Description:
It is a single chain. The protein is mostly helical. Helix content is 74%, strand content 0%. α2 (25-43) packs across α14 and α8 runs antiparallel to α13. This is Acyltransferase. Keywords: Acyltransferase, Transferase.
Amino acid sequence: MSEISATHLVPPRAIVERTARTRLAYLDGWRGMSIALVLIGHFFPVPGINLGVLGVEFFFVLSGRLMAEILFIERYPLKKFFKRRFSRIYPALLVFVVVAMIALSGTFIAFKWKAALTALTFTYNYAGILLNRAGALDHIWSLCIEEHAYIILAAISAVVASRSRVIPLLLVLALLAMINGAVSYWVLHMDYETTYWRTDVHIASILLSAAICLLKADGKLPTLLKGPYVAVAAAVGAVCLFMDSVPTPIHYLLAVPLLAIAVNALDFSTRFLSGWLSSLPMTTLGLWSYSLYLWQQPFYKFVYEQGSNPWPMLAGVFACALCSYYLIERPAREWLNRNW
């Protein structure tokens, strides 16, 4: 969802010591894998595991790593940071919401301007719980959490100057959010959406990955987590813990920390893994991932609730997403970044 593209690989020592972001192709590939999981989970579901939900977690831990690099390592100017976030996120979102509201009018997933407004103000994750949901916009909950995380992390970077204080703060906040989710689900008996659509719960994924990224940058990451097979082992462990047979809070108490370790351990991974993630198909999917994520939802609803054939629906996703990326997302971002 959030984008920092990549073009080349650097050795782990250089990654730890750099003061500015290095473009890493395998992070684009991780993003490509994230959207692939979402699409498979929504259009060709695998029994026993919700790959769509897992794909969102892949996105979240990547966002945490990237935001830590931008805000705490590079110390990117906040004014420029928010301008670039806006140019990256908002034009494509605005067009999607407006076009979907018009195109879906009269269908079973039609929605009105009030729902559109909650999506465009990044309040849908709470409005969908407390007020009314709109099926075509249900995926916007994750964008809301990301935008809220941007604000929170930016505020922390502005107020807390010392990284030695930032890391414990992020870890404590992540732990509190994880406990909040477990209590909400297990003790208060809230359902999945009422628990895990909330920023005060789900931000843990982003904060935890950010903290691990900073530990790595400061040379404080345990040697055990720097092995060439750590990323694969942690990711596989996370996938196993995301099985439907595992209680939902365990997904976020144990599996998400493993994913946060995995995305940060990519810097030390084998050439096979980094090379696969850096391959053209994976990085291209990563490039298109935001538009794909926006446009897959209404087509997914037709498959899931109406029993439509998933193949033409998936083709429709790619057609709309490519139009969105090449006609809206990329031109708008480039123009705004150049002129604003």
